[in-house]
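Predict the assembly for these two chains.
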Amino acid sequence: MTDKGKQGAVLVLGGGVAGVQSALDLADLGYYVYLVEKKASIGGVMAQLDKTFPTNDCSL
Amino acid sequence: MEAGRSPNIEILANARLMALEGEAGGFTARVHQEPRFIDEDKCTACGTCTMYCPRPVVDLYNERLDITRAPHIDYPQAIPAVYYIDAKACLRVNYESCNLCAQTCTAKAIDFSQKPREHVLDVGAVVLAPGFGKIDPAVLARFGYGKHPDVVTSLEFERLTCASGPTEGHIVRLSDHKTPKKIAFLQCIGSRDETCGNGYCSSVCCMYAVKEASVAKEHEPDLDISIFFMDVRTQGKGFDESRERAEKKYGIRVIRARVPRVEEIDGRLALTWTDEDGTSRSELFDMVVLSVGLDAPEDARQIADLCGVELNKYDFCLTSAGSPLSTTRPGVFVAGAFQGPKDVPESVTQASGVASLASEELASARGTRTVSVMYPEEDLEIAKGPPRIGVFVCHCGVNIAGVVDVKAVRDYAADLGDVVLYEDPMYSCSQDALKNIARKIKENRLNRVVIAACSPRTHEPLFQETLRSVGVNPALVEMANIRDQCSWVHAQEPAEATQKAMDLVRMAVAKARHLEPLSLQMVSVIPRAVVLGGGAAGMSAALAIADQGFDCILVEKEGELGGNLRMLKWTLDGQDASAILANLVTRVQGHPRIRVMTNAVLENVTGFVGNFVSTIRTGDSNEEVRHGVCVIATGGMQYVPTGDMYGESPKVLTQLELEGRLSKGKGGLRGVNSVVMIQCVGSRGDGMNHCSRVCCTQAVKNALKIKEMKPETAVYVLYRDIRTFGFHEDLYSEARRKGVVFLRYEPEDRPQVLKAGNGLKVRAFDRLLGEYIEIPAGLVVLSTGIAPGENEALSRVVKAPLTPEGFFLEAHAKLRPVEVSVDGFYLCGLAHGPKSLDESIAQAKAAAAKAAIPLAKGEVPVTPLVSRVDQEKCIGCGICESLCPFHAIRLVKVDKRRKAETVTASCKACGICAAHCPTLAISMGGFTDEAIMAQIHAFSERCAS
């Protein structure tokens, strides 16, 4: 705990592309992250997409 | 996805939030986690359990188009890379019978004793990113979905076009598995449809329909594809270009109509619609794809109740234009589709944006909960001795061993020179096997390791970490990919696959002998940011960086802060823009960590990420500032119309000028009985190529303002596509209800502004009447687009590329939307492309989060894989300097001679310099000429013998 009593951890609800990106950035910024996903694996809908536009990169 | 490897991200899968108490800075969250019945530490993802399970279940990952078994994994790259058992289907879980999987699992990972777990977590902030929900099946049923197998959803069609999907990328009709000839895409299924309660536009369907249609044409060039649009809403950056390509290159037919239903006639699908001129038409198709919209998440209300946040009328999270990522509860933030329907780049942007918001809130507690992985001190002596090589040939379950004779390859390795240890682990990447490898390295004093398994792209970091864990330099491991390159591609030729695996192992051993330790250097970061541009985006970025605890210099070229926001009167959602402006300016000017420089421009910048030196000119004086990162937020400009009597008649205004008049009250409309707005002035081929994204909503917003102030005024909007995406669609519906007349025009037949006595009139074609009409106009309002600012000069200074339209180009359109290709530079606002105020602010937050990462870390790693110049051999020809795409190699004077020198922090290890050096003076760490030559010689050994 710190002087102001704030917690240096964040809960991210949802393991889709938005949740995962938030989690990565928060960890990089110096916070511990709990990534809560209701399914068995993270990735969300984006993992189902074949290719993304307009670069046609693999979506994983 | 790196999330699986970060020590500071704890993934709680199969879990849901049960309660959230406390307040910003100190929440207590309760999370309930269901068991997966498979031990994450033991499972090696071999797939044996799926093979033996007698219980079929539909594969939800493949949109029910395929079948899997109760224990399964959604896709091979899933994280956690661990199988799970579908408790609903499992015979053991439900009836205490079967247990086949547990008996066949060689890793003994299946554990039916697992119980649900309750976690109590202390967190300072919460990010809501639950994504979006599916449209009610009853809406889809109206279009024959569920009745005719050849009516599919767009996500099902996506899986059909995917090479790893159920049909391996072949597009087939589900009724007879034949390739269709004629396909129709129906847009706005479950969107822009008040009959199903979803009045909003889902924003992404037009673009994905164009994408899927284009991909389908690439797979099957003879397909005849039609897309039924109401408006073609491809307003994203670069999207209009793709749409044009789809129409011109692939011949995809655009029909502007809404099809009310789908009927089956003799196994084909009949569509009936009304054209813009009122004629009724019908046609038969083989397959119909429903472009299904994005609904609010199914559990939106539950999440809202648990977290105490408010929703909008469509059950998406409620936010405002001034703080687009904040919910109604302090400390709880929202990103992605739950904030409103949006595509991947916007979701990724918002995701980084909320990271900044949480980081601003919790700056005082930064680093208090994180852990760092500690490694033992490196044994520097061990690498110096003669090579002692250990070879591990992986079975990968049956993945490799099913084809390649792994034991024969292992025994073959035994006879290669310098090999002192050879083994064949079942799964070299499993926790047990890694511990064994680490122990064997220590016991046998191995100083080179060869792993013959899968791809270094996915697994090399894992083995490098194993070496580090026992004090051996991580560069001393070499991988041979005998899975992808042997067992997978030569599945039908086991003898040859085994021979090739032996070749690859021999080559890897030959290269391993020449591997040298590489040291990981860290460069310290100057904890200060420079933000270029003092408009809404720049001020928001500067505040976000400063609130995270870092110094910031805000450089504005004009005499006062505000940029384009000074001209805007109302935000798209009707808020007072000047209040938002005043708030930003006051906070920026009063912030102890922000220094504002006005009338200032960036003249020059040198250095690299973490250590930049910039020259900033104010008037005649130059000042040098040192900083670690830089945010480009230099804004854009209003396009200046060149025709339509703009400048000739005082009755012709731009939308911003109209806003200025309306803000003065009803007097601004004195004597005006009709207003004609013309869309796409300057945009979409009218002077500039891009869509300016905001003008449609701006026009509708101002039309409503006129109707509110003086309801008897006739208002006409002449448009090409009304792009009021997302919740802005509500404004469009309201405008039509209030009698605003919308008339579509073709770019070839643009409306004309003409003189009519003392006044003006606009001549345009009315499609329903089939003739030209002349509309008297008290005011003509031009919806002028957003033009790029003076980006070219800045682009040269910072060496960051521009798009053909003149906006800054992001590093990756989807995954790195606020970074530019130069490390340490970030991007937001109109400098990136046209966007609304809320989008600019969200993007500014995202750029601030990305920029704060090096500042927060305090040091940046210099990858050991960089080019190194042997200055003895260098002749100073300068070829390397001229070819390096990253400006990472330069010529310096050494004893009065020109010699090349690598700027290690900028080097990306692409190898272009090494490949072109005429004297072979440049080598790449880990890929020295000696090592590669040894590998090639080893290859030829079999040919010679």
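Chain A is about 20% helix and 25% strand. Chain A touches chain B through 57 residues (CB under 8 Å).
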